[in-house]
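To: structure subgroup
Subject: Chain for Friday's discussion

All,

I'm putting the inputs and outputs inline so they're searchable in the archive.
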Amino acid sequence: MNYRENLQWLAYAEEADILNVALFGFTAKAWREANPELAKKNNVRDFATINELTVLSNLESHNAQMLKEGKKKEERFEILREIAEYQLNVLNAAEEIKMIESDGGMPEV
């Protein structure tokens, strides 16, 4: 299921699901179902990069503010998705630049 395109799930979503889908593109439940062995001891966030965890923390703050402002789930989700995409792109690009500067080489793809 493409959660980002099919927003029917949103009406029943918990706040953590909204954040997970905005950042990762899937709910924690969907991840557990797709990764039953890993899910026995871990959760999706255990496999997140430092950049993803940084963005997730920022999304939590943005979401809390939007909740205070009374924004609806649909609006919050769209804003959070845009923030996640932008921040992750910026952090990943900065990381690549650091690698190039420190190695004098290109980052692995």
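Points worth raising on Friday:
The helical segments are 15-24, 28-34, 36-39, 50-68, 73-103.
The radius of gyration is 16 Å.

D.
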